[in-house]
UniProtKB/TrEMBL annotation:
The keyword Lipoprotein does not apply. This is Purple acid phosphatase. InterPro entries: Calcineurin-like_PHP, Metallo-depent_PP-like, MPP_PAP, PAPs-like, PAPs_C, PAPs_N, Purple_acid_Pase-like_N. PANTHER family: ACID PHOSPHATASE RELATED, PURPLE ACID PHOSPHATASE. Residues 1-27 form the signal peptide. The keyword Glycoprotein applies. Belongs to the metallophosphoesterase superfamily. Purple acid phosphatase family. Keywords: Glycoprotein, Hydrolase, Signal. Residues 359-419 form the Purple acid phosphatase C-terminal domain.
């Protein structure tokens, strides 16, 4: 294909996307030619660290108006966050707790977290950690109503491409980042978790980063390190004990944003999910408590994709899909975002392997930039349910515009430019009469025992 005809094709895809919401029968494999891979970044150190210096700061949403601040100091330091709306002035404070962990010969720094609030929506707060005057951080709280802007990207790692992806995300005006697993690619080397914390701090201290686990978080070694998720659970504590339906487990949880207009399910691909397990029962309770007359959009994140036409990781999400797909369709979940496969792919609305106007849109967005490189081999011919696929690094943006419309955009890292390579409107299934025949009973429609 010539360059101009591939340009024309890209424009056609964009136009078709904009017009028809979801181009059902247009299966596109992008002809894009990628730039070369980039090596892992050198281990990021903290040069000004005097042992008390807060580092690896990140924040996460807790309930409608609170935020958890998590940070690490090398030495003992108080687990206090002081904050306010004026730089340099911290009239408010909250004290949390401190944990540490050991992993083989590695001993972590002091991992602190404190929950601050109540906070005003859409407001910039300035804060410092452990009363340390050397570093002031700031974040903006998410809005309490729509519109709401998510960035979604998985499988970050810490290579030159990760840095490029982070630069593009930093240029986006977003409210919260959703990460469907595979954060640091530390792969047992615990100092790489510290390095990752330093790499993402500029972004993750300024906007909530909501994560769920991937296979690279497991870090289990038979006999010597039998407990999985040791570093992940210690460093990336999420609000599993908050919200309408607490899960009680850091490996899966849910939360609301925009005053309850959007409900986000962070599911766990590497903990039990079969019928009767704790995660399954929690998901049933959680979905039954969502009132779709008030909640315009429900989105779910998993690590291993339930739909995937890349040759990499074929079938790895099938068992979880078999267990949970019916629950998600029953609750009219609007979209499912996955990582794991290091490429981008967007499917039509699907259920049970087939197109279904009342099933979720499935998207693979495992293209943050990690050291394992891209998954470039696809199954041919492209299945008709696969609308667009391309093996490039990049990130996605989901802007929930109002109660009926959300705009999904995939930004490819093209050398160091962010280029929009796929875009589509996703409409709320709660607002689709054909998917909600029994309106009065919408909240529990099709969720069976
Ligand atoms: C919601 O947003 C879409 C896309 O911008 C627009 O077409 C539609 O009219 C909006 N709906 C309302 C009720 O404003
Ligand atoms: Fe993975």
């Amino acid at each position: 294909m010539t360059r101009s005809s591939s340009m024309a094709l890209a424009l056609l895809v964009l136009a078709a996307s904009a017009l028809s919401l979801l181009p059902a029968s247009l299966a596109v494999t992008s002809p894009y030619v990628r730039p070369a891979t980039r090596p892992t970044l050198p281990l990021l150190q903290d040069d000004d660290d005097d042992g008390q210096t807060p580092q690896q700061v990140h924040i996460s949403i807790v309930g409608p108006d609170k935020m958890r601040v998590t940070w690490i100091t090398d030495d003992d330091a108080p687990a206090i966050v002081e904050y306010g709306t004026t730089p340099g002035q911290y009239p408010l404070s909250a004290t949390g707790s401190t944990t540490t962990y050991s992993y083989l010969l590695y001993h972590s720094g002091k991992i602190h977290d404190a929950v601050i609030g109540p906070l005003q929506p859409s407001t910039t707060y300035y804060y410092r950690c452990s009363s340390n005057p050397s570093r002031e951080f700031s974040f903006r709280t998410p809005p309490a109503t729509l519109p709401f802007k998510f960035v979604i990207v998985g499988d970050f790692g810490q290579t030159g491409w990760t840095a490029s992806t982070l630069k593009h995300i930093a240029a986006a005006d977003y409210d919260a980042l959703l990460l469907p697993g595979d954060l640091s690619y530390a792969d047992l080397i615990q100092t790489r978790w510290d390095s990752f914390g330093r790499l993402v701090q500029p972004l993750a201290s300024a906007r909530p980063w909501m994560v769920t686990e991937g296979n690279h978080e497991i870090e289990k070694i038979p006999v010597v390190q039998p407990e999985p998720f040791r570093a992940y659970n210690a460093r990336w504590r999420m609000p599993y004990d908050a919200g309408a339906t607490p899960s009680g487990d850091n490996l899966y949880y849910s939360f609301d944003v925009a005053g309850g207009a959007v409900h986000v399910l962070m599911l766990g691909s590497y903990t039990d999910y079969a019928a009767g397990t704790a995660q399954y029962q929690w998901l049933r309770r959680d979905l039954a408590a969502v009132d779709r007359r008030k909640t315009a959009f429900v989105v779910a994140l998993v690590h291993a994709p339930w739909y995937n036409s890349n040759r990499a990781h074929q079938g790895e999400g099938d068992a979880m899909r078999g267990a949970m797909e019916e629950l998600l369709r029953g609750a009219r979940v609007d979209a499912v975002f996955a990582g794991h496969v290091h490429a981008y792919e967007r499917f039509a609305r699907v259920y049970g392997g087939k197109e279904d106007p009342c099933g979720p849109v499935h998207v693979t967005i495992g293209d943050g930039g990690n050291r394992e490189g891209l998954a470039e081999k696809y199954i041919d011919p492209q299945p008709s349910i696969s609308a667009f696929r391309e093996a490039s690094f990049g990130h996605g943006r989901l802007e929930v515009v109002n109660a009926t419309h959300a705009l999904w955009t995939w930004h490819r890292n093209d050398d160091d430019q962010a280029v929009v390579a796929d875009q589509v409107w996703i409409t709320s299934l709660a607002a689709n009469p054909a998917c909600n025949k029994n309106k009065n009973n919408m909240r529990t429609v099709n969720i069976q025992n």
